[in-house]
Amino acid sequence: MALENPNPPAQTSPLPERLPAAPAETQPSPELWAGQPIDSPGVTEPKPQKKRILGIDLARGFALIGMFTAHFGLDTSVEFADPSTWGGLVNGRSSILFAILAGVSLAIITGRTSVYSGQKLADARVKILVRALCIFVLGEILTSLNSYIAIILQSYAVLFVIALVCLRLRRRWLIAIALVWAIIGPLLAAVWEPLLEPFGLGVPMAELFIWGAYPVLTWIPYILIGLAIGRTDLTLRKNQVFLVVLGSIFAVMGYTAVGPYGELSSSHGITEEQFSQDQGSVPDKEIWKDFESMSEEELLALEDSDFGMPSAGETIAATLAAWDTAEPHSNTPFEIVGSGGFAVAFLGLCLLIAPFTRLLLAPAIAMGTMSLTVYTLHVVTFRMVQDHGVMDGGLAIWPWLITIIAAGAFALIWQNTLGRGPLERLLNRILLTVTGVRSRSKH
After folding, report:
1. pTM
2. Which of 332, 175, 345 is nearest to 264 (CA)?
3. How far apart are CA 229 and CA 340, in angstroms?
4. Which residue, of 4, 107, 370, 380, has the greatest Cβ tally within 10 A?
């Protein structure tokens, strides 16, 4: 009688027809060589940040240098036929380039060519609002210094806020609205305040929106054009060339339309430095000195006086009649198209040459990476020297050169040692504190 095996063999599953091959030894992926973390379950690896576009920084740096030049008294009126006058291109056009670059920056911080949506876009809008508020406050602080410089930051901030409603628009719509507003904006600026004045209604912050150095109503096209440009892949050579060509066409159209010789400044124009002095703050004691010496009867008589100011109808007619110019700060459709086109072409040129001149033009590029800091330092130092007569008699060559050299050296040293500029670093910290999201924008 056979004995049963007390330990029967365990049941085994049939072998698969083909065993899985052992994993082949592979080289580490480029991400590992780059020091990026290996994917873990439930962890999404962040997308790598896009590189900074040097051409934008270069354009911003040149815009700063142009503003330095205008503020220190270069008053040349520009004509196409006379190359010796081309230095006057800085008047008015440097600030317009800044406004267009503001639109480009908005496009970059909201997704570049792929616009954010949903919560990501909402977060970006909050950050833009906070950024605009900080820039506006800084602008008010700089304005309180009573320098000759008309501060651009307040208009810059308001344009940021206005552009929020256009972030999702396609490029064709942004361009179309900008072109239409190039006519509507100056019209509104011409008729708005005079029409409301007879009813005792003023325009809130009229200087900021209508008749200041950088009136928001007529500057809206610049930031919209910049936003459309920022939605384009600016790293492609063909797009850079297209900006140069298209901008040049619009510049020629805008400037030559005002006269047969294509004058960029009319004989009754003013320079940016003169405009800044006219717009600068004046101490209250100087304004009221004459009024304090008047009798009560003389003051009562002033209530019915129009101080020689034109009526609403006369103001509108005079404004429309003065549209045949593209002079700096005229804010006419011709200036918007001409100077806007010039700024676009110049931006395209900077994008083209930046990769080949990054060492030669490193100081200007560094200035462009911290434009808020450099601009603020310029206003403060300008205020310190303006009362010493350095701006008398045309371009103050030595203060101008010292400012450019010092700004370039400071920006270059700071960038290579500490990275982000001091005010840019402070702004990023404020954004992080308020929104809880660190700004990752490279611009």
Report:
1. 0.76
2. 332
3. 12
4. 370
Residue 14: how many other CB atoms lie within 10 Å: 5
Which residue in 346, 316, 376 sits closest to 151, CA to CA?
376
Residues in Cβ contact with 314 at an 8 Å cutoff, skipping those fewer than 6 apart: none
Residue 19 above 70 pLDDT? no
Percent of the chain with pLDDT over 90: 51
Domain extent listing, the chain: 51-280+310-435
Rounded to whole angstroms, the Cα distance separating 97 from 64 reads 10
Please tell me whether residue 391 adopts helix, strand or coil conformation.
coil
Distance CA 428, CA 441 (A): 10
* Rg of the Cα atoms in the chain: 29
pLDDT surpasses 90 at 170:
yes
Please, how many CA atoms are within 13 Å of residue 9, restricted to the half-sphere of its CB?
3
DSSP 208: I
Measure the CA–CA gap between 125 and 427, rounded to whole angstroms: 15
DSSP code at position 51: P
Which pair of tokens denotes residue 304? 């019915």
